[in-house]
Amino acid sequence: MLIGNATYCEIRVIRCVDNYESMKIIFFNPYADNSDMKGAARRIMFLSMILTRENIAFQAILKPDYEKINHSIFDRFLLAIGLRRLAYFLFALKCCRDKENIIISEVIFAPVWLPNFILTIHDLKAFDMIAARGGQLRNWAYSLFPRLASRIIVVTESVKSDLMKFCNVDPNRVFVVPNGIDDRRLKIALSTKNISKVYDFVYVSSFVKHKRHSLLIKAAPIGAKILLIGRDMGSLEEINKEIMLRRNEITVHVLLDVDTDEDLFNKIASAKCGIFPSSFEGFGIPLLEYAACGLYVIASNIPPFVELKHYVNEFFQVDNITELKAVMANFFDHEMNVPRSDSTNLVVNGAHTEAAITNEFLILLNK
Question: What is the CATH number of the domain that holds 245?
Answer without folding.
Answer: 3.40.50.2000
